[in-house]
Amino acid sequence: MSKQVAGTAMTENKRLSFEFFPPKTEAGLNKLAVTRTELAQLQPAFFSVTYGAGGSTREPTRNAVMAIRDAGCAVAPHLSFGDDGEESVLQLLQEYRDAGINRIVALRGDLPSGMGITRMVYASELVAFIRRHFGQHFHIEVAAYPEIHPEATTYDSDLQFLKKKLEAGANTVITQYFYNADAYCWFVERCRAIGIDAPIYPGIMPITNYPNLARFSAKCGAEIPRWMAQQLESYGDDQQSVAAFGIDVVSRLCERLLDEGAPGMHFYTMNQAEPTTTICHNIGFELVTPTSAPAIA
User: Fold this and answer.
1) If you ran DSSP here, which 8-state letter would residue 137 be given?
2) Taking the alpha carbons of 4, 7, 8, 11 in that order, is the dihedral positive or negative?
3) Residues 6+ away with beta carbon under 8 Å from 181
4) How many C-alpha atoms does 64 have within 13 Å on its Cβ side?
5) How far apart are CA 277 and CA 281, in angstroms?
6) What CATH number is given for 8-282 in this structure?
7) pLDDT tens-digit profile of 137-153?
8) N or C: which end of the chain has fewer CB atoms below 10 A?
9) Tell me: the pLDDT tens digits for 169-225?
10) Residue 257: which of 177, 174, 159, 182 has the closest Cα?
11) Residues 284, 4 contacting (CB under 8 angstroms)
12) Taking phi first (over 0 means left), then psi (-120 to 50 degrees means alpha), and beta for anything else, what does residue 18 get?
């Protein structure tokens, strides 16, 4: 996009957060630190770090979380039971609490392939577990799917699963990414109709690599509108055109969501500052060069 599409007034008091996946090497952690420093200029409420299927990235997630915490930034570890018992999860939560971390993204998680794990623990059970042991210490984020979870039997049943998570003690909701603003608006409307009044933050996925995005979207149930797919496919290996189109489309999506009253944005950054930084600038979030490290929130 050649110009900013939304004024700063539209983003005033809107929450911004950025999601990372945990690097597996020291070099990866160092690279992520550079990305975090760049994105910190947008003054996000927090950074979050994903937790691999079945808890497969337990230690890399913990290491990334602590590195972000040590840099003076607010951080929200993702967490699921996976194949861990209650004592193991409790120990990790205690470590996070003792480190001054007060936000958790509580998930059911996915079954990893080839690991022989068969049990699943619903996110509502994890939320209740956290509240039982830590009271109100943690602000708990949970996930939602505006286009329905791929395993859901019906739209209404999926809404009820979300409601159970909030009734168990969750505070706020982050959605799976989507490219259809109407899907989010309808989802929020249906949530309000059944008594869900928690803030619902739209998940935003910038477009950088279309083949990878298409594969992942097919697995997680995020629909890529046909007109978008056709345009992206037409660019072939022209990554510059893919990136420019992606920035334009996602910036306009974010502008529409803010105009419809979304309380903020949660960006799936893929551990890259760009194009997230440009999109945030386009929709009115201003870069602020910190004079010192931000306080842990």
Assistant:
1) S
2) negative
3) 253, 256, 257, 260
4) 31
5) 6
6) 3.20.20.220
7) 999 999 999 999 999 99
8) C
9) 999 999 999 999 999 999 999 999 999 999 999 999 999 999 999 999 999 999 999
10) 182
11) yes
12) beta
Catalytic hit among 19, 141, 147, 255: 19
Cβ-based burial of 141 (10 A; exposed 0-12, middle 13-18, buried ≥19) = buried
**pLDDT higher than 60, residue 116:** no
Give me the residue spans of the domains in the chain.
Answer: 8-282
| 113 pLDDT above the threshold of 80 | no
SS3 19: strand
Q: Are 181 and 260 in contact (CB under 8 A)?
A: yes
Q: How far apart are CA 259 and CA 138, in angstroms?
A: 30
Burial class (CB in 10 A: 0-12, 13-18, 19+), 34: exposed
Question: What are residue 292's phi and psi, to 5 degrees?
Answer: -155, 170
Query: What are 204's two structure tokens?
Result: 């935003």
Instruction: Please answer whether residues 150 and 220 qualify as being in contact, where contact means their C-beta atoms are separated by less than 8 angstroms.
Output: yes
**Annotation says 19 is catalytic:** yes
> Can you tell me which residue has the tokens 């600038």?
281
Q: Using CA atoms, how far apart are residues 180 and 192, in angstroms rounded to an integer?
A: 19
Q: Tell me how crowded residue 89 is: count the other CB atoms within 10 A of its CB.
A: 21
Residue 82: both structure tokens together: 């996976």
The runs of H, that is alpha helices, within 53-104 are 58-70, 86-98
Residue 1 has pLDDT above 60, yes or no: no
Query: Is the CB of residue 250 less than 8 Å from the CB of residue 210?
Result: no
Q: Report the pLDDT value the prediction gives residue 292, as an integer from 0 to 100.
A: 45
Can you give the pTM of this predicted structure?
Answer: 0.92
Report the C-alpha gap between 102 and 180 in whole angstroms. Answer: 32
Q: What is the mean pLDDT of the chain?
A: 91
Residue carrying structure tokens 């010192």? 292
pLDDT over 70 for what percent of the chain?
90
